[in-house]
Design a protein that fits this description.
Layout lengths: L1 E2 L16 H9 L2 E4 L6 E4 L9 E7 L4 E4 L4 E10 L3 E6 L10 E6 L4 E6 L8 E9 L2 E12 L5 H8 L7 H7 L20 H7 L7 H8 L4 H19 L3 E14 L2 E10 L6 E5 L2 E2 L10 E6 L2 E7 L7 E7 L2 E8 L6 E3 L4 E4 L3 E8 L7 E4 L2 E2 L6 E5 L5 E6 L8 E7 L2 E10 L17 E3 L5 H39 L57 H7 L42 H5 L1 H17 L12 E5 L5 E5 L21 E5 L5 E5 L21 E5 L5 E5 L16 E3 L4 E4 L4 E7 L7 E4 L2 E2 L6 E6 L2 E6 L8 E7 L2 E10 L6 H8 L2 E4 L4 E6 L7 E6 L2 E2 L6 E5 L3 E6 L8 E9 L2 E12 L6 E9 L4 E6 L11 E8 L6 E7 L3 E4 L7 E10 L2 E2 L3 E2 L3 E2 L13 E5 L4 E4 L13 E8 L6 E2 L11 E4 L7 E10 L2 E2 L9 E2 ...
Length: about 1500
């Protein structure tokens, strides 16, 4: 994630400027100067500098840095000036007082000033300034520090939120938002209340997701939910209508892979300045339009795409998008807890081999996302994606690998990813180069682990965790129920109610007052001892937040009894507070608060019901005999509070004595439910207890001991036999049900299930039809296991099978498949190779079975065969035959048939071998020996042996100069021959043929070979030094390029000490060195030697080789160490310059470096590429041919005779881009206004410079452009083109050029208009004598063109010319002065705009002209001469005969006044519009020209002239000669 430093004031390209105080100081005194270094501002304090003195300047200014968080950032600068300037550092915002973080250093040796920032973080991202000051001036330059943060930092987001404080208080309310997250003390959710998150999510969800969301939040009443949802949606739409036009295409948040999640929608705002806010769990979070930020917003037209990068578990939550204070969209983001147990591993595969990637997940996942080369992979012919049944093992199979498939492949599950390389190894066989290779059936890849075992262990682990969670939940629930039970059984607080004296007569009616208190209802009761009445009420609530629930759920009852009253009340689990007494408002006692867990337990509900009944009975005074109609509360078996009415008087308590001998009237003490001690009197004898033993069969009178409530041991006698317990049988259950079965046709299939009862019979069904044994099915039962076996499955056996037993059933599908299959014998016969001679035909035939339709394909060497002249494919329902006619040798190879239907695919492979004559032997012929008595030659075997092994080689020999060939006969199949029958000095030529069973090949003829001529080998290459020591130097060399026609017998080696002219042999001359290497031990330590070598063949020694390089006889050196101070001197889009210092020398550890290698790799690659082939000596290097804006890692390796040293890497990657340059426009004369005629094209071209490449955006009136406007951008310019402009294209076009450093904009006003239409009718009025007011209707273009104005011209009768009297009138009225009487005036009104002027609108004549007496001249009458003449031909057309292909020219002369209209005809068809004829009429001469005469031009041609006075015609014929 990028974090940008803020550049507040730019003084130069990519740099920040001085503070306000500095600017004020510079305004008072100082002369601004420009430095030779871009981006440096110099201020000179005095006008004239003393001789030899200078202002400070930067020789090297600090450059902008982009560095990863936690690294070391270093700014370096070199300054000059006399006197020596003082250098200080500063930053645009924040201080630099922390000396541990900011360390300033100065190197006296290099004069370099350094600012080191240790362990950079987002807080250090800023613009840093370097000041150089002396007494004559100061120089300032700045550099930005950009920090790449590892994760999103909350502090930065909070700093952005602090900007809200600067908002206008009137607008501040819109920025407030109620927190929707979890508060510190969550309010207790009332029963039936729905979480607000539910409504936020479901209002933006699709209808198909309603059921899932309701289940997640526990909403069960769908009808009520849909009704309320409709109301909420309507309210939201009304709120959204204030700010938006439309919103659609909502896509919820989803993980896109590579740690990025995004959601998007199309939005059209009414006001483009409306603010958009992003919230997560109700808390506003900052976002940016830069994609590198944690939260970013990308706008593409109307589409808004919100992205979240660097996903972590805490990014899960409810994301909401608001416009101002109105919510637009909500989406719930859940991050799964899945992770990789086994990640995908690197796979090495050969060409045309399959490759497998596989991984194991920690939790079941339906399908992970596979990606290759940053593209999502889908199931298809190229890729097969499989998932195990437990959804833990995922595999990707890449079929038929090629070199294009190699690269990085990754798997993504949730926010977790893993990646690995696929390496495809090329086929090393040179013979197969350029040919399509055969598909391999092997498979590469796999982790090598037992993934099934790992998945099973993971399943067991997950099951154990789930069971632990269930046990913990059950334990917590049991503990909660225990606590609730103790609270329920706890004694209630003492009775504090008091009553008023009086007689009977209080009757109250219960009312709900709405304030949380329920008025009680009491019957009519009378007190025995003076009318004391006590009213009690239970369950009154104080909490006003539960007011509505109190109205629904709470009821209270007052019971008044005679005599000394004791309060009766039932326990309300939801009550907490106080209840009212009787209708007079007597106060009751508080009721207990019971946990909800008690209400939920079935057993506790029964207990409460029993206890409530006991309490009601025990609380009554035994002496009171109440009437009917009294009510009391109780808890029923369902745990609900109810009210019941007694239908008779209360009975006195009866206490049974265990001995059963007591009479009536005996009293005893007891403790009631409230804990009070009371007395009660028995009214009759005690009855004996009856105990029922479930296992006993004995009669009556059996006795047993028991302990009563008081703890006394007593005996009781049973009065009858014990009854057996009744156990309810749950019925037969399925231990395991049926499973779906896939079976091949003709093969057996088995369906099996298991019941919980061994003695239960069942019934089998297929498609609801009962099956019997007569149907060919075997139904068997083995105890609780029931099995259905179908011996030979047929298509009709497919269907749904059901097994029913004791009212229960289980179902499964049987799918009988009929894939393509071969008979094993036929397949074995087909697999045998077929051998045929060239030119013959052969047939491949293979029967098969399988369901139609069947797709049959034949292949040869991997290429599909189609019907042609030599190939014919026959297909039938049971077999297919391939007929190959006129087989050629090239047809040899693999023959494959592939069958495919809906159930599967089957392949069979055979091989075709076509036998033919072998090809000729391969040259060149190698002369192994050439002496005066023999010639020994060797050649290579034929490229193709025709399918048969070589038996013999047939040789012929010719002596050069003779015409006859001598047959040498056949030799065995070894490609070499030694001819001993030769004469010294003679030349011989040989013919060689290959002999096999299929015939004899073409011959191969050798060059002329001489017997016994001295042919010395060429000089070997200079020896190379393999290694050197104090007492030994190891040398190697290579064979000479020309051996002289015979084999090399050995080599002689010589050495020479540096400074000497004498070469001394290393080996004895009569003992040549047989190998091409030698260890020279005859050396002196510390001396320097060079070596040369001779080659020896049968003819003798060759010329010596060139000397080797001088080498010291000393032990090898140690490799050098790392280079020091590696840094980037300069960068561009295609190159970067490096510099470094030599590594230090340490005796015995690292020696001096003799050269350097520079290596580079792109960030996404793992292989290093060496930039220089040979080591360089200099400590600078320029890396070229880089990709623009790509990230590169650079390292330098020092090397010497001891080998390569340890590479030194740059601390950070380098971006291939020049130093940052703030965008600026380079055109000095940029037009800010242009006028374009409607319909013409409008073009705006602007040049700029910026680095890195900027983002260019065009706006029209601050709104994005329409699609009809074409934008063309390049590295340094941008062009806007409107091909056919319209008036609606008028406006202000703004270009915004933006990059990392800053942005620049420029606006051009474009006015598209046309010649204006003339004004309307003109009227003249005289309001003041001597003036005329000209009034006209506006031009129709006035409303569309705000630049349209009018001008008025005048002409009077005394002058013949028009003169302009007014211009640039923006109204429709003008008053002309100096109107003279006796003259006529005419006015014209023109409409003008930026394009031009309209036609005039004429005014009526104003005034009258003084008329003088008419001067009459009597002219004689002349007779008018009529010059009109009828059309006539002066020269008619003549006959024409033209050769084919030549031109033909016809002409005639005509006359007539008025000028007649001329029409040419061919065969009475007009030719005036035919473009194949050139027709002219010049001064009465009419002509017709045919450029190339063809037979089609043959015919009659005529010319017709016509006018109002008549018509004339002339014709001719054209004859075409062949």
């Amino acid at each position: 994630m990028w974090k940008k430093s803020k550049v507040t004031d730019q003084t130069a390209t990519g740099q920040g400027g001085p503070s306000e105080a500095e600017q004020e100081e510079e305004k008072k005194a100082g002369i601004k100067k420009r430095s030779k270094v871009p981006g440096v501002m110099i201020t000179q304090f005095i006008e004239v500098l003393p001789e030899g003195k200078s202002t400070p300047d930067f020789l090297r200014k600090p450059i902008a840095l982009t560095i990863q968080e936690g690294k070391l950032a270093i700014f370096k600068a070199n300054v000059c000036g006399d006197p020596k300037p003082e250098v200080t550092w500063g930053r645009a915002k924040g201080d630099m007082s922390d000396t541990e973080t900011f360390q300033k250093k100065y190197d006296e040796a290099t004069g370099e000033y350094t600012l080191e920032i240790h362990r950079v973080s987002g807080e250090e991202a800023d613009t840093y300034k370097c000041y150089a000051i002396n007494e004559y001036g100061k120089a300032i330059c700045t550099a930005a520090l950009n920090v790449i943060e590892v994760g999103f930092k909350k502090k930065k987001a909070m700093e952005q939120l602090e900007d809200i404080g600067s908002v206008d208080p009137a607008e501040f309310r819109k920025l407030l938002r109620k927190r929707k997250g979890v508060d510190k003390e969550e309010a207790v959710k009332e029963p039936g209340e729905i979480d607000e998150r539910f409504w936020e999510i479901i209002m933006s969800a699709d209808r198909k997701d309603y059921e899932r969301i309701c289940a997640e939040f526990g909403v069960k009443d769908f009808r009520v939910m849909l009704k309320k949802l409709s109301e909420k949606k309507k309210e939201r739409q009304e709120e959204q209508a204030k700010y938006i036009e439309t919103i659609n295409n909502l896509k919820h948040i989803d993980i896109k892979g590579l740690g990025i999640a995004s959601f998007e929608f199309d939005l059209e705002l009414k006001d483009l300045t409306s603010r958009i806010f992003l919230y997560k769990d109700g808390v506003m979070i900052p976002y940016s339009d830069e994609e590198e930020m944690k939260h970013s917003l990308k706008t593409v037209g109307k589409k808004l795409i919100f992205s979240v990068r660097d996903l972590k578990a805490e990014d899960a939550g409810l994301y909401q998008v608001d416009v101002e204070e109105v919510n637009l969209f909500s989406t719930d983001f859940k991050i799964p807890t899945v992770d990789f147990i086994v990640k995908i591993q690197e796979v090495k595969a050969k060409e045309r081999e399959d490759a497998m990637f596989e991984c194991v997940l920690s939790h079941p996942w339906p399908r992970i996302k596979w990606m290759g080369k940053n593209a999502t992979l889908e199931e298809g012919e190229k890729y097969t994606i499989t998932v195990s049944e437990d959804k833990l093992i995922h595999r990707l199979l890449i079929k038929d690998c090629s070199q294009l498939d190699k690269g990085i492949y990754s798997a993504a599950a949730g926010i977790k990813t893993c990646s690995a390389w696929l390496i495809v190894e090329a086929d090393s066989d040179p013979a197969s180069h350029g040919k399509k290779k055969t598909r391999k059936t092997t498979q590469a890849g796999g982790t090598g682990l037992d993934l099934g075992k790992l998945a099973q262990e993971q399943q067991e682990k997950l099951a154990k965790e789930r069971q632990e969670q269930i046990d913990a939940a059950n334990k917590a629930r049991a503990e909660e129920e225990r606590l609730a039970r103790e609270a329920l059984l706890a004694p209630p607080p003492p009775d504090t109610g008091d009553g008023d004296s009086g007689e009977g007569g209080d009757s109250g009616e219960g009312k709900d007052t709405g304030d949380g208190k329920n008025k009680s209802k009491s019957g009519s009761n009378k007190s025995k001892d003076g009318g004391k009445s006590v009213g009690k009420s239970v369950g009154e609530m104080k909490d006003s937040e539960k007011e509505e629930d109190d109205k629904k759920n709470k009821k209270s009852t007052d019971d008044s009894d005679k005599g000394k009253g004791t309060s009766n009340y039932d326990i309300d689990p939801n009550a907490n507070g106080e209840g009212d007494g009787d209708s007079k408002g007597r106060k009751g006692h508080p009721g207990p608060l019971i946990p909800d867990a008690v209400i939920d337990a079935e057993k506790e509900r029964d207990d409460k019901y029993k206890k409530s009944t006991d309490v009601s009975d025990k609380g009554k005074d035994p002496n009171v005999k109440s009437g009917t109609g009294e009510t009391e509360e109780y808890i029923d078996a369902a745990g609900m509070h109810s009210v019941r009415t007694r239908q008779g008087p209360l009975l006195k308590d009866t206490v049974i004595d265990p001995n059963g001998q007591s009479g009536t009237g005996e009293t005893e003490e007891y403790t009631d439910a409230s804990g009070k001690r009371s007395e009660r009197t028995r009214q009759g004898p005690l009855l004996k207890d009856t105990v029922i033993d479930p296992n006993a069969q004995s009669g009556t009178e059996e006795t047993e001991q028991y302990t009563d409530v008081s703890g006394k041991r007593s005996e009781r006698t049973r009065q009858g036999p014990l009854l057996k317990d009744t156990v309810i049988d749950p019925g037969v259950q399925f231990v395991s049900g049926l499973s779906n079965v896939h079976a091949l046709i003709g093969q057996p299939a088995e369906l099996m299930c298991k019941l919980s009862n061994d003695n239960c019979e069942g019934t089998w069904y297929r498609d609801s039809k009962k099956l019997t044994a007569d149907d060919g099915h075997i139904m068997s039962r083995d105890g609780a296991n029931h099995k259905l076996v179908i011996n030979r499955c047929q298509e009709e056996d497919s269907g749904k099978y059901r097994f029913e037993a004791d009212g229960r059933k289980t179902e499964a599908m049987l799918n009988v498949e009929d894939p393509p299959r071969f008979d094993p014998d036929d397949l074995s016969a087909f697999s045998q190779p077929v051998i045929v001679k060239v030119g013959n035909s052969t047939t491949f035939k293979l029967p098969f079975v399988g369901r139609e339709p069947m797709k049959i394909q034949w292949y040869r060497n991997g290429e599909e065969l189609l019907d042609d002249n030599t190939t014919k494919i026959e297909k039938s329902f049971t077999q297919s035959r391939l007929l190959l006619s006129k087989c050629q040798r090239k047809d040899t190879g693999e023959i494959k048939i592939k069958l495919k239907n809906e159930h599967g695919t089957m392949e069979a492979i055979s091989r075709l071998i076509v036998l033919d004559k072998p090809t000729a032997p391969q040259g060149p012929v190698e002369v192994l020996e050439s002496t005066a008595s023999c010639i020994h030659i060797k050649w290579r075997a034929p490229k193709d042996d025709g399918g048969c092994p070589v038996i013999n080689y047939n040789l012929e020999r010719q002596q050069v100069g003779r015409n006859t060939w001598k047959k040498l006969g056949d030799i065995p199949g070894v490609p070499e021959y030694k001819d001993n029958d030769v004469e010294h000095g003679r030349k011989y030529c040989y013919r060689i043929r290959v002999v096999t069973e299929e015939g004899v090949s073409e011959m191969m003829e050798t060059d002329d070979l001489t017997a016994g001529t001295l042919a010395f080998p060429s000089s070997p290459a200079p020896p190379k030094v393999a290694s050197a020591f104090n007492n030994c130097i190891n040398l190697t060399w290579s064979t000479p390029t020309d051996t002289g026609g015979s084999r090399i017998l050995g080599y002689n080696l010589e050495k020479r000490k540096k400074g000497s002219n004498l070469w001394s042999p290393v080996n004895p001359t009569d003992e040549p060195i047989q190998e091409k290497k030698r260890a020279v031990t005859d050396v002196v330590a510390g001396n320097e030697y060079e070596f040369r070598v001779y080659a020896i063949n049968i003819s003798g020694l060759s010329e010596p080789s060139s000397p080797s390089e001088f080498i010291f006889a000393k032990d090898p050196k140690n490799p050098p160490g790392k280079v020091e101070d590696l840094k980037v001197a300069d960068t561009s889009y295609t190159a970067l310059s490096l510099s470094w210092n030599k590594p230090t020398e340490e005796v015995g550890v690292q020696d001096e470096a003799k050269g350097y290698f520079i290596e580079v790799r792109q960030a996404e690659c793992i292989d290093w590429t060496r930039c220089n082939i040979t080591p360089i000596i200099l400590t600078t290097f320029t890396v070229k041919s880089l990709k623009a804006m790509a990230m590169y890692w650079i390292r330098v390796i020092a090397i010497n005779d001891g080998g390569e040293g340890v590479p030194q890497d740059l601390d950070n990657y380098i971006l291939a881009m020049p130093p940052p340059v703030r965008p600026c426009f380079t055109d000095n004369k940029m037009k800010s206004f242009m006028v374009v005629r409607a319909g013409n094209s409008a073009r705006i071209l602007l040049n700029f410079e910026a680095s890195p490449w900027p983002e260019v955006m065009w706006l029209k009136d601050d709104v994005p452009l329409l699609k009809r406007v074409n934008i063309s951008n390049s590295e340094s310019s941008s062009q806007l083109l409107i091909t056919s402009s319209e008036r609606s294209d008028s406006g202000i076009y703004t270009i915004v050029v933006k990059n990392l450093v800053g942005q620049e904009s420029f606006s051009v006003e474009v006015r598209v208009t046309d010649d204006p239409k003339p004004p309307g009718p003109v009227e003249l009025e005289e309001n003041v004598p001597g003036t005329v007011t000209v009034i006209w209707e506006p031009s129709p273009d006035e409303k569309r063109d705000d630049h349209l104005h009018y001008s008025v011209s005048k002409r009077d009768s005394t002058k013949g010319s028009w003169s302009m009297v007014a211009d640039r009138l923006f109204n429709n009225k003008f008053t002309a002065c100096n109107i003279m009487p006796g003259r006529e005036y005419h006015f014209r009104v023109y409409a003008k705009n930026d394009m031009g002027m309209s036609a005039p609108s004429e005014s009526p004549t104003w005034g009258s002209e003084r008329r003088k007496d008419t001067f009459v001249v009597n002219m004689p009458a002349y007779k008018t001469c009529d010059l009109r003449t009828a059309p006539a031909f002066l020269v008619p057309l003549r006959q024409h005969t033209a050769p084919k292909g030549y031109e033909c020219y016809m002409s005639c002369a005509i006359k007539g006044n008025p000028k007649p209209r001329v029409t040419w005809y061919r065969n009475n068809i007009s030719l005036n519009t035919n473009t194949n004829y050139l027709i002219t009429n010049i001064c009465g001469v009419c002509s017709l020209l045919i450029l190339r005469v063809t037979p089609k031009d043959w015919g009659e041609y005529s010319i017709q002239i016509e006018s109002s006075l008549g018509r004339a015609e002339s014709s001719t014929k054209l004859t075409v000669r062949e």
